[in-house]
Write a structure and sequence with these properties.
With about 100 residues, the chain is an alpha+beta fold. Helix content is about 35%, strand content about 25%. The chain is built from 3 helices and 4 strands, in the order βαβαββα. The protein is globular and about 30 Å long.
Length: about 100
């Protein structure tokens, strides 16, 4: 199973857009993907404990992959990077290479 954790700052227009786009992404992908949103203004300790210091950021974790999480940092473009990582690990209609 994949977990996408988005780290955002407050409820800015960019943060809201990113969350909306991430939810739309979930609907398009053909794999099981959970999403968790961390507002670092409300929960700064979560980002600090996970070593996240640049925002917005996304961490994609495959719970079956011992290699650990994949960190993608950036604005709205990061969702394209997330899509690329997911499709590499869980291609639609097939298995990861």
């Amino acid at each position: 199973m994949l977990l996408l954790r988005l780290y955002v700052i407050g409820r800015s227009d960019e943060s809201n857009r990113m969350v909306t786009e991430a939810r739309a992404l979930l609907g398009k992908l053909g794999c099981t993907l959970q999403m968790e949103i961390v507002d670092v203004m409300e929960h700064p300790g979560v980002a600090r404990r996970n070593g996240i210091v640049v925002f917005p950021a996304a961490v994609l974790t495959d719970t079956d992959d011992p290699a650990g999480p994949k960190l993608v940092i950036g604005g709205m473009a990061l969702l394209g990077d997330v899509t690329h990582q997911v499709s590499k690990q869980h291609p639609v209609g097939g298995h990861a290479a």
